[in-house]
């Protein structure tokens, strides 16, 4: 055991502040700053995914606070390798001038390397420092100790920070699984030792606060999946979160036990397997895997396929299989598809559409909704959340990782367990940790927060997203106008539209009326305005939109292409 060393308030009497930039008041995009004196340490930097199709890959947190304090950022510390905890890291590092070290479990850092390479970072361009449980690390005036926790990904940790206001424990995502397949249980003994020493603040995962009892063990999921595969007389496809390496390892054993070959379908699952193999967390026999290109020629009862896309992500393997458009495999009636996952809130509609497509194909579909044994959450249920509070016995408590509903429910649970100083905060609300025993948590300030959309590794300005949303709501009209050297209309304006009005609704008549209004508006404009491209463009835009709105009730984006002869 390597306990946290004593550390006094080296930064004078400055208070400790907790600055949530993401993950409080929402599911995903987890990112939190700890600030004391001249030092700032960030815990995680994740992304969230869009619920509408506006050409967005992910959202990451706004980094205004970080940019304003970038000369004080001493480190980024990661709890584990899920995208909602590491996916925003390349964007964060691009906003920092100085080299900031990134600490994290080895598996998480291997996934980070893959993300950084996608963004053009070289192998040694970012300092990645692997951490081990029960070891102590320094980051400015902070020291921290990783503590092993069980989650739906290997190599996950909680973090215990030694701060000027005492010990702060951040649970990360956790559960108290008594039988994890890799044998790495949550280190309850170390958490209890910290509780004995005195935990000033506990920041704890709220995701499953509405789920009573305890979460299902991952080992029991493996047993359920083995039963399904053993009974199947045809092809079996398991849809799952690619990051769940323990489930991948169990499915490899299931394939061998049922004399099937294993196939990985989807870039995500292939990338996670490579990362786990590099870290020594996964090892497949050399003759177990079969390339996706060989699926079409294999007997249906001799293959077990692991596919990504359980949330019906566009162009994912499962979506293309359900649509019958996958280039390497077509499903047949009677094939077994198991969605070994739960639906993330917001993805309900596309997932149910994908399920409907599979059922229409005659697929034997098994899901968490019909068979709870096919999936286990990686997040603690209420009984486990209670146990975490009892182990740490914190003086103060702030719930993290959840919507406001989840945070308030978790706060109520903490009060029921006996914690008197409980505070609910959302993104941007700065929490100040009290020094004295009689003081309480307080909201000290508010910082700018929000979401930044990205596509293909590039950040998209808010104005672009607003325009895309307006295009989807109202469509676009393009006015092509030619003026002579005096500023008079030289030819009838040409107007085309997309997404505004259907041809059967009289699109030609509406556009003809708009063209007449444009010509009249230009003719009625004074000579000075006609000589200004900007002036004429605005007159034309307004004239066209007024007519279209009057006739259709819609206010489309109107673009003007102006030429002069």
Explain this structure.
With 565 residues, this protein is α/β, with parallel strands linked by helices. The chain has 16 helices and 26 strands. The protein has an 8-stranded mixed β-sheet. It has a 7-stranded mixed β-sheet with strand order 8-9-10-11-12-18-19. Strands 14-15-13-16-17 form a 5-stranded parallel β-sheet, sandwiched between helices. Helix 4 packs across helix 8, helix 5 (188-197) packs across helix 11 (382-392) and helix 6 (218-231) packs parallel to helix 7. The longest helix has 20 residues, at 533-552. The radius of gyration is 28 Å and the shape is globular. The protein starts with 15 loop residues before the first strand and ends with a strand. Residues 1-12 have low confidence and may be disordered. InterPro entries: Metallo-B-lactamas, RibonucZ/Hydroxyglut_hydro, RMMBL, RNase_J, RNase_J_2, RNase_J_b_CASP, RNase_J_C. This is Ribonuclease J. Keywords: Cytoplasm, Exonuclease, Hydrolase, Metal-binding, Nuclease, RNA-binding, Zinc. Residues 28-223 form the Metallo-beta-lactamase domain. It holds the Pfam family Lactamase_B.
